[in-house]
Amino acid sequence: MVVVGLAPAAHGGNRTGRIFTGDRSGDTLFASLYRTGFANQPRSEHRDDGLELRGAYVAAIVRCAPPANRPTTVERDTCLPYLARELELLPEARVLLALGSFAWDGALMALRSKGVAIPRPKPRFGHGAEAQAGRYTLLGCFHPSQQNTFTGKLTEGMLDDVFARARALAGL
Q1: How far from 106 is each of 22, 76, 118, 149, CA to CA, in Å?
Q2: Which of 30, 60, 61, 62 has its CA 20 to 30 A from that of 77?
C-alpha cells in the first residue's frame, strides 16, 4: 500500500526529512498505521527513531513545503513525475490510499502519466471511496489534519477502518 499525502509540512516532514514526521497529522497517521499493523511503533519523531513500515510506503504529491501549507496545482503538476517514478519502483504496490481530494486527483494524474487507464467519468473522492485504475485500487481517506481530527470529520476509528480496508485490498 502506498499512502499518498499532500506535501511535507514546514514544521514536520520538511524539518525532519521524513514526511508526516514531527507534526500532528503524522502523530495521527502513524498511530493508525501502528494499530493496523503497518508500523512497528505508534510515533514518528525523527528520521532515526526506529520506525519501520511493513507493507506500506508513504509518498506525497508535492515534494516541498508549500506557502501557507496549501499546495498549488502548478506545484502538483511539477512534482507528479516523482510520484509516478516512485510507483515504478514499487512494483508490488496495488493500493494507493489518498489522504484528501488533492492527493486523490494527483494520484489519478500520476497513474495516467504512467499509461494507466483512468475510469470515465473521473472517480470522485470521498472518505472510503474506491476506484479501480489498472492494477491499482485507489482508496480515499480524509486527511489526518488537525482541522479534520479536532472537528470530528475524521476519527481514529474512521482512519483505522480505511487502513484495515487497504490491508484487505492489498492481501496483507
Answers
A1: 24, 7, 12, 23
A2: 30
* Residue 3, phi then psi, degrees to nearest 5: -85, 125
Q: Report the candidate in 42, 82, 44 with the shortest Cα–Cα distance to residue 62.
A: 82
CATH class label, 2-170? alpha beta
Structural domain spans, the chain? 2-170
Spatial contact of 6 and 60, defined as CB atoms under 8 Å apart: yes
| pTM metric for this prediction | 0.91
CA distance 136 to 133: 5
